C-alpha cells in the first residue's frame, strides 16, 4: 500500500548519509519547517569555490531526512554557482516517491537550508505549484 | 469490528454523522473518514450550511442602516445571532458580545484596546506556557509596546499549570492574566474559576481564550468569574470568518475602539468623531452577516444536543482513546490522565516515528489527525519534542474512530519496523 515509505526512503531515514556537523566549516546555516517546527542545519567545507565536504544535522520526519541525505550525496565537487542552480523539482524527483502538497516542505527542507548556506541568509520556499507541476512532468513514482 | 454503542456515551456520534455532509465524501483510501482534527476546525452540519445559503438567498442586505424591509430582516437576524451567543455563554447582555473574525482577533482587540490604555512601563502581564500562539504573541507585542514584563506560569510534567508557580507569579500583581480554558496542544482543562478568583484578588483583569472550550462543554462567563472571553465560530460547527469577544460592559464601555471606520461611529465631522455604543463601537465596516446567521444555526444545533451531553460524550471518548493509546507499545500521550482535567484532545508521539509520518500513514487509513507544533511551540520545547500528532473529538466522533486510529498507528509502526 505504501508508495511513499519505500525501503529506499526508510533506509535513508534510519541511516542518513552525511549526517553531523563539520568542524571547521566554511558555510553554515539552519532553518526550520514552519508546519512542524523541525529544524535542520547544514555545514559545508569548501576547496576554492567547490564543495569539499558537507553534512546536515537536526531531527525530522522520514521525508525530510531522506531528502537531505540524498541531496547531500550529490553536492561534493559542485561549485557555489552550481549549488545555486540546483532545481528544487529535481530534489523532489530524486526521492523517487510521490510527494503531494502536504509533504512538499518536508521534501524541500534540505534544499532550503542548502540555499540559505550558500546565500548566507534565509531564502524563500520555492513556489509549490512550480515544483509539483515539474515533479509530475518528471514522472514521479506511480 | 463490533462496537458497543453503550460505551459511546450519551450521544450517538455515528448517527450524528448523517447530519454532516462531509462524511458522504469518499476518501482516497476508500475507507470511511475519521475526522479527528476538530480542535483545528470542526465540520459543519447541514443545518449550518443551509442557514448560510438561506441567509444569502432570502435575508441578505447590509445591517444597521437600512430603512427597507430586507435590511430590517437581515439586521434582526444578525442581532439575533448576538443574542443567541450571549445566551449560549451566559453573558448578561448581548451588548457585551462583539463579533470579530475569530478568537485571535478577539484577543488582539483586548491587547490593543484595553492593553494599550491600561498597561504601562513596569507593569506585569501573566500568561502561561501552554498558550496557543494566539494568546501569547499579542501579549508579547503589548509588553514590547508598553514596556511591561510578560511572565509565564510553568507546566507540570503531566501538562497542568503548576499551582505553586501560579501563586508565586500572582504575587507580582499582574495587571492582566491571560489563559486558555482548554489547551489545544495538551487537552488540559484548566481550573478557570479558581484562577480567576485568585487573579482578581490581586487586582488583575482575566482574559480567557475559550476557543477550545466553548465548542465542547458548558461555559458560563458569570460562573467562571472572568472579564473577557474569546471564541471562534468555526470550531463550534459554525462558519469560518466569525468569532466573538465577550467582555464586561463597564470594561468595554471604557475601552477605545480597535478598528475605526463606518458603523462604529455616532457622529463624524472632519475634525472629530464620537464613538457608537458597545458592541458596535468595535464593529467597524460591514460585518460577517451571513456567517453570523450560520453561527446562530450552529448554536441552535449544539443547544439541541445539550452541552453537558457533548462534554459527557467527549469525556467517554477520551477515556476510551487514552486507555487504548497508552496501552500501545511505543506510544506516549501528553497531558493529564484524569478525564476530569482532560478534554477530547490527545497529543501523542510514537517512538521512532516523526508525527508527520504518523499523520501521513493515518491519512491512508482515512484518519485525519494534526501533526506539528499546534501553534504552541513553547509547549513542544517544554516537553523536548519537535512536534506531536494530535487526535481531537467532537459530536460526530465515536469509538469506531478510536479503533481506526489505533489500527493506523499499528500500521505506521509496521511500516517503520518499530512494532
Please supply descriptive tags for the structure shown above.
heterodimer; A: 142 residues; alpha+beta; Sufe protein. Chain: A; 3-stranded antiparallel sheet; 6 helices; 41% helix; globular; B: 419 residues; alpha/beta; Aspartate Aminotransferase, domain 1; Aspartate Aminotransferase, domain 2; 7-stranded mixed sheet; 4-stranded antiparallel sheet; 38% helix
Characterise this structure.
- The complex is a heterodimer of chains A (142) and B (419).
- Chain A is of the alpha+beta class and 142 residues long.
- Helices cover 41% and strands 17% of the residues of chain A.
- Chain A has a 3-stranded antiparallel beta sheet, with helices on one face.
- In chain A, strand 2 (39-47) and strand 3 (50-58) form a beta hairpin.
- The radius of gyration of chain A is 14 Å and the shape is globular.
- Chain B is an alpha/beta fold.
- Chain B folds into 2 domains: 5-38 and 306-415, Alpha-Beta Complex (Aspartate Aminotransferase, domain 1); 49-304, Type I PLP-dependent aspartate aminotransferase-like (Major domain) (Aspartate Aminotransferase, domain 2), CATH 3.40.640.
- In chain B, the strands form 4 sheets. Chain B has a 7-stranded mixed beta sheet, sandwiched between helices. A 4-stranded antiparallel beta sheet of chain B has the order 11-12-15-14, with helices on one face.
- In chain B, strand 9 (265-268) and strand 10 form a beta hairpin.
- The longest helix of chain B has 20 residues, at 69-88.
- Which structural category do the helix and sheet elements of chain A fall into? alpha+beta
Helix content of chain A: 40-55%
> Which chain pair has the greatest contact?
A-B, 18 and 18 residues
Number of domains of chain B: 2
- N-to-C series of helices and strands of chain A: HEEEHHHHH
Tell me the radius of gyration of chain B. 22 Å
- The first-to-last residue Cα distance of chain A is 12 Å
Largest sheet of chain A: 3 strands, antiparallel
Write the CATH architecture name of chain A.
Alpha-Beta Complex
Helical fraction of chain B equals: 25-40%
Low-confidence stretches of chain B: 1-8
CATH topology of the largest domain in chain B: the name is Aspartate Aminotransferase, domain 2
List the domain count of chain A as a whole number.
1
CATH class of the largest domain in chain B: Alpha Beta
> Can you count the beta strands of chain B?
15
Number of distinct beta strands of chain A = 3
Q: How confident is the prediction overall: mean pLDDT of chain A?
A: 90
Strand order of the largest sheet of chain B: 2-8-7-6-5-3-4
Number of helices of chain A: 6
Amino acid at each position: 500500500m505504501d508508495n511513499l515509505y519505500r525501503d529506499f526512503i526508510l533506509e535513508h531515514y534510519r541511516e542518513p548519509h552525511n549526517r553531523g556537523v563539520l568542524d571547521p566549516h566554511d558555510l553554515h546555516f539552519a532553518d526550520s519547517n514552519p508546519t512542524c517546527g523541525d529544524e535542520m542545519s547544514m555545514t559545508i567545507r569548501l576547496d576554492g569555490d567547490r564543495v569539499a565536504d558537507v553534512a546536515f544535522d537536526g531531527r525530522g520526519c522520514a521525508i525530510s531526512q531522506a531528502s537531505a541525505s540524498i541531496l547531500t550525496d550529490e553536492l561534493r565537487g559542485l561549485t557555489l554557482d552550481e549549488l545555486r542552480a540546483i532545481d528544487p523539482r529535481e530534489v523532489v524527483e530524486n526521492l523517487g516517491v510521490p510527494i503531494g502538497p502536504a509533504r512538499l516542505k518536508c521534501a524541500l527542507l534540505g534544499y532550503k537550508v542548502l540555499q540559505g548556506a550558500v546565500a548566507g541568509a534565509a531564502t524563500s520556499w520555492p513556489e509549490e505549484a512550480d515544483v509539483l507541476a515539474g515533479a509530475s512532468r518528471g514522472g514521479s513514482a506511480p | 469490528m463490533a462496537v458497543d454503542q453503550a460505551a459511546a456515551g450519551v450521544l450517538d456520534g455515528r448517527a450524528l454523522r448523517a447530519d454532516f455532509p462531509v462524511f458522504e465524501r469518499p476518501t482516497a483510501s476508500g475507507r470511511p473518514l475519521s475526522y479527528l482534527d476538530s480542535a483545528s476546525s470542526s465540520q459543519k452540519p447541514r443545518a449550518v450550511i443551509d442557514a448560510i445559503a438561506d441567509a444569502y438567498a432570502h435575508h441578505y442586505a447590509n445591517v444597521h442602516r437600512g430603512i427597507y424591509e430586507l435590511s430590517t430582516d437581515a439586521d434582526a437576524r444578525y442581532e439575533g445571532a448576538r443574542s443567541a451567543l450571549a445566551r449560549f455563554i451566559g453573558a448578561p447582555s448581548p451588548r457585551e458580545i462583539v463579533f470579530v473574525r475569530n478568537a485571535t482577533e478577539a484577543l488582539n482587540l483586548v491587547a490593543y484596546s484595553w492593553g494599550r490604555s491600561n498597561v504601562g512601563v513596569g507593569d506585569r502581564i501573566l500568561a502561561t506556557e501552554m498558550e496557543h500562539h494566539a494568546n501569547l504573541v499579542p501579549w508579547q507585542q503589548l509588553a514590547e509596546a508598553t514596556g511591561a514584563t510578560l511572565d509565564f506560569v510553568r507546566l507540570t510534567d503531566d501538562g497542568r499549570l503548576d499551582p505553586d508557580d501560579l501563586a508565586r507569579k500572582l504575587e507580582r500583581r499582574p495587571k492582566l492574566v491571560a489563559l486558555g480554558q482548554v489547551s489545544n496542544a495538551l487537552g488540559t482543562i484548566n481550573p478557570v474559576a479558581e484562577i480567576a478568583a485568585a487573579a482578581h484578588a490581586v487586582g488583575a483583569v482575566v482574559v480567557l481564550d475559550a476557543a477550545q472550550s466553548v465548542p465542547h462543554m458548558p461555559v458560563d462567563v458569570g460562573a467562571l468569574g472572568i472579564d473577557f472571553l474569546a471564541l471562534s465560530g468555526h470550531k463550534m460547527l459554525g462558519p469560518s470568518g466569525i468569532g466573538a469577544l465577550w467582555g464586561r460592559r463597564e470594561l468595554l464601555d471604557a475601552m477605545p475602539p480597535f478598528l475605526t471606520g463606518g458603523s462604529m461611529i455616532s457622529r463624524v465631522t472632519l475634525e472629530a468623531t464620537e464613538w457608537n455604543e458597545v458592541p458596535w463601537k468595535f464593529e467597524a465596516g460591514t460585518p460577517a452577516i451571513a456567517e453570523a446567521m450560520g453561527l446562530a444555526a450552529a448554536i441552535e444545533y449544539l443547544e439541541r444536543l445539550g452541552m453537558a451531553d457533548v462534554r459527557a460524550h467527549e469525556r467517554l471518548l477520551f477515556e476510551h482513546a487514552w486507555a487504548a493509546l497508552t496501552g500501545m507499545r511505543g506510544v506516549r500521550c501528553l497531558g493529564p490522565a484524569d478525564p476530569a482535567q482532560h478534554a477530547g484532545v490527545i497529543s501523542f508521539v510514537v517512538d521512532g516515528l516523526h508525527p508527520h509520518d504518523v499523520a501521513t500513514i493515518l491519512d491512508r487509513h482515512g484518519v485525519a489527525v494534526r501533526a506539528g507544533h499546534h501553534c504552541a511551540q513553547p509547549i513542544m520545547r517544554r516537553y523536548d519534542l519537535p512536534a506531536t500528532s494530535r487526535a481531537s473529538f467532537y459530536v460526530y466522533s465515536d469509538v469506531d474512530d478510536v479503533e481506526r486510529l489505533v489500527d493506523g498507528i499499528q500500521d505506521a509502526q509496521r511500516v517503520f519496523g518499530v512494532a
